[in-house]
Amino acid sequence: MALYRYVKSTKNYPRLRGNIPILISFLSITAGVSLLFWVGWPIVAFSVFTESLFSSTVSPLSDSTSQSRPSLPAVVLAADSPVSPVSVGLTNANAWFPTMPQKKIVTPVNTYAVSIPKLHIEKATVIIGGSDLSQSLIHYGGTGLPGDYGNAVIFGHSTLPQFFNPKNYTSIFSTLPTIKEGDDVFVDFDGVTYRYQVFKLTVLDPTDVALLEQRFDDSYVTLVTCVPPGTYWKRLYVQARLVRPTM
Q1: pLDDT tens series, the chain, 247 aa
Q2: What value, to the nearest 5°, has the Cα angle with vertex 106 and ends 144 and 184?
Q3: What is the pTM of this model?
Q4: Which of 16, 165, 194, 236 gives a 20 to 30 Å CA spacing to 182?
């Protein structure tokens, strides 16, 4: 009859139980760093690689092309203001420039549509003199109308570009910084489609309202949103000029 004898192995196996907390800590740190990079990279990339391509200052418009206005005091969203931009709500267009409030104007229509092929935005609703940027783009009341001489200023909300959705008005302008000179902006206003072409991008402080001024040498559309993506530190102005049909 065969006899068996069991001998305890002397091989040293890793102490898995003791390594579990270390593994969890490593995974947590990795996840945290990855999340920080995922959120922070668009801001860093804009500041380092993108903003340098834009104009950072605006020369005063000449008297022949601008509508004179009195000098404006600093708005309540200034850096030294006790009022936080978040507290007043940046989905409220009226909070963007409190010292330059919207004006009620008589227009043939109250809404119109904007399409930007480069950004995959198709017939986004624009409300003239509206206030809720979570429901539509806002045409700032008192600025020019599409197709007319003047400057039609359109505000749109933005978030981190990872959340961009051309159908969601809280993120619709999240990729606006990727637009280039020469790109088209189409405006459907009162039964007529106007084609505008981007010619300049400018980044300004929130207190600077220079590009809200009216100029009447041509027909312009200016698109405005907050930058860097996901912040309210600066304002991006995308200026486009009407492309007139050639005869």
Answers
A1: 566 666 666 555 555 566 777 767 766 677 666 656 555 556 666 666 565 656 554 433 333 334 433 333 322 232 333 333 443 467 888 888 877 889 888 889 999 999 999 999 999 999 999 999 999 999 999 999 999 999 999 999 999 888 899 999 999 999 999 999 999 999 999 999 999 999 999 999 988 888 888 999 999 999 999 998 888 888 999 999 999 987 6
A2: 30
A3: 0.73
A4: 165
Residue 73 lies in a domain: yes
Is 12 within a domain?
Answer: no
Whether 219 is in a domain gets the answer yes
Task: Quote the tokens at residue 4.
Answer: 């068996």
- Phi, psi values for residue 9, rounded to 5°: -65, 145
Give the contacts of 117 (CB within 8 A, at least 6 positions apart): 183, 184, 186
- Reduce the DSSP state of residue 201 to 3 states and report it: strand
